[in-house]
């Protein structure tokens, strides 16, 4: 699949989160001493470049608040301000470590925990107001919050971002409907689904059968769902999705090296904090999914993908599905090789009465860039590219014949 690409949406594994850490990671004495004395600290050129790159990505993905804060934070790094003290020890962290997103998440956690009321006044997620025409208005409160809660912020920076993007369930449901149409001996009677997810985070997308997708002239899913994936499709949705019966997930479970418990206060805070505060539809989708998680068990084992799949078998009379989204790049090469061996074993075991489906929504290199593609492989059939979508899963669109993405390895 080529070398990993840095994804800016916050999808890496995360450890358990505490809202008020008892022991914070201390800043290196030299860095804080330099800050206090007004002397140059360690060079921040790399970190400044990473923050500007992340700011550009946030702007491109529709978060002007995050973009504005990170641009000012980059200036603060160069000036050895509070943000420099916050990231001390992480100055040379590689792009996939997403230090800029960790800092944003720490500040958002302060807001959601009630510890930064002045900053909350600028955060729509907390009932505040942000005006893109005055993008620097939140900066003084952000800088003050980082300085006032430095131990909290530094402890938070040890935790990689993770948002468990609910919008990506749009692609999972699309792939399930496609496979059920391929398998249907009798229209309208789909196989019950045994859903297994790799890199599940909090397991929210294991609840996809309880989400509703909508677009102009189209809807799919339970009408009373608290999770509505609005504007799910750009243009016409796939023909097989329009009249697809609802999916019935009979058994759901996932794995993650460090899963989040969505039913806990700490887990809920972690998930909410890493959403961008000016993207209210994402906030609303997450809140709905957390409400469903409180009602429906979706176990997530604390283990790697290959070890998890070793215990997975196909089952008579059910469609066994392995699904993952925007996680492949974070899996070490040897681990992924073992994972592919397990996927090949399951594919070889697939038959018409006990089928196996591998669904993936991952960035693939196409030409000079990367595109987020939904691919499906039913049993040992060739892999098929079904759709493309924005990184958060919404909207999705079908590909025109001849699109080079259809030939992506």
Walk me through the structure.
There is one protein chain. The chain is 35% helix and 15% strand. By secondary structure, it is of the alpha/beta class. It folds into two domains: 29-156, no CATH class; 166-260 and 283-407, no CATH class. An eight-stranded mixed sheet has the order 6-5-1-7-8-9-10-11, sandwiched between helices. A three-stranded mixed sheet has the order 3-2-4, with no helix packed on it. The longest helix is centred in the C-terminal third of the chain and has 17 residues, at 333-349. The N and C termini lie close together (7 Å). Mean pLDDT is 89; it is low at 1-41. It comes from Kitasatospora saccharophila. This is DUF2332 domain-containing protein. Pfam families: DUF2332 (PF10094).
- Low-pLDDT parts are 1-41
Helical segment count? 14
Alpha-carbon distance between the two ends: 7 Å
> Total strand count, please?
11
Output the radius of gyration: 22 Å
The total tally of domains equals 2
| Main sheet makeup | 8 strands, mixed
Could you tell me the strand content as a percent range? 15-25%
The computed structural class is: alpha/beta
Identify the overall geometry.
Answer: globular
Helix content: 25-40%
Nearest-integer average pLDDT = 89
Q: List the strand order in the largest sheet.
A: 6-5-1-7-8-9-10-11
Helices and strands, in order, run as HHHHHHHHHEEEEHEHHEHEHEEEE
